[in-house]
Amino acid sequence: MSVTVTPITEQQLVAAAESLGALKAEIERRVFGQSDLVLQAIVGLLARGNVLIEGQPGLGKTLLVKVLSEALAMQFSRIQFTPDLMPADITGSQTLAHDEQGRAQLQFRAGPIFANMVLADEVNRATPKTQSALLEAMQEHSVTVAGQKRDLPSPFIVAATQNPIEMEGTYPLPEAQLDRFLLKLEVQFPSFDDLREIGLRTTGSAEATTNVVMTREQLLGLQSLTREIVVAPHVAEYCAQITMATHPGSPQAPEQVRRFVRYGASPRAMQALILAGRAYALLCGRGWVSEDDVRAVAHPVLRHRMIPTFDAKLESVTNNDLVDVLLGSITPVRAAG
Predict the structure, then answer these.
(1) How many CB atoms neighbour CB 240 within 10 A?
(2) Which residue, 73, 84, 199, 304, is most buried by CB atoms nearer than 10 A?
(3) CATH number of 27-198
C-alpha cells in the first residue's frame, strides 16, 4: 500500500521563512553578536532536539535560552545544578497531603522538569545520579515517579549549559547523556566591536524586554513542517558516510580519525544530521536538503559524539578539527541524472 506525501507548497516555505526570520531577529536584538549561535539554537528548536551550550562565563548562554522561551511564549523553567541537587528536585515527588475530610493521601508534586523549555544551568556541577534524572526526559519526553509514567508538555526541550574552563567541583557528562543532545553549541567570545556594543546596550537605563513573535501552535506547526522537508537518497547516503567515517575501524575513516578517535558517533548522529539538515533547509526557505545543509550542521552535531584518544589531547587535536577532516575527506554523492 503506497503512502501519498503532500509536497510542501511555496506559500508554506515563505510563511515559515518570515516567521523564523522574525524569531531570529528578535533573539539577536537581546543576544548581540552571536548570529551563528542563534541560528543553531533555532535549528535545534525546529528539530525538537535538546541542546548543550558550552562557553565561558558571561557570554550569554543563560540569556539565549531565556530570550528564546520568551519570544515563543513558552513555559520556562530554570534548574540550577549543584552537587547537593537530588533527582526528585528535578522530576518531582510524592508528598503527603490531607483532603477536606482530613484524610491523608499521597499526591504528586511536579518538579521543574514539567515545562516547555527547561534550562539545566551548569549541568556538569551535579552528581551523575542527578544528571541521570534527565535521561528519560530528554529521550522519551516523560518521567517515571513512584512507578508511574508522566508525560511532559509539548513542545519540550532541555537546554543545558556548562563552563569548559571550570573543573573544580564538576562531574563530566557521561557519553550516554551527551549523545542525547542533538546539538552542542559553542559560544565564542565577541569581537572588539561587538564587545563595545554589548557594553553600551546593556548598561543603560532602558529595561530590556522580549517581544512574543510566535505562538506555541505556530512552533508546533513549524516542527511538523521540518520533518516534511525532502531528503534525497544521495543526501542520506552522504550523512551515512560521514557517520561511518567517525569510526576508526571503518574503511572510510581518514587517517586522522584512525589515530585520534577511540569511539565514533552512534546512529543518533545519522538521525541528527538529517533532522538538523532539514531544519537548516527550512531556515533557508527550501523544501529539500542539500549536502551544504549537512555540512552547515556537521560541527554542532558531531563535535560531542566522538571520544578522542590520549594522543589527540597530547597534540591538542580537537573534535572540531576532526569534523573539518571528515568534511574534507568525504566526497558528496551526487544525485543520479
Answers:
(1) 17
(2) 304
(3) 3.40.50.300
Other CB atoms within a 10 A radius of the CB of residue 211 amount to 10
Contact (Cβ atoms closer than 8 angstroms) between residue 245 and residue 269: no
The residue among 202, 193, 79 whose CA lies nearest residue 133 is 79
Distance CA 110, CA 253 (A): 47
Confirm if 20 and 42 have CB atoms less than 8 A apart.
yes
CATH T-level fold of 229-337: Helicase, Ruva Protein; domain 3 (1.10.8)
Q: How far, in Å, CA of 259 to CA of 313, rounded?
A: 12
Domain boundaries, the chain: 27-198, 229-337
CA distances from 173 to 128, 155, 259, 301, 304 (A): 8, 24, 24, 16, 11
pLDDT tens, residue by residue, 193-248: 888 888 888 787 777 788 999 988 999 999 999 999 999 999 999 999 999 999 99
Cell readout for 27 is: 533573539
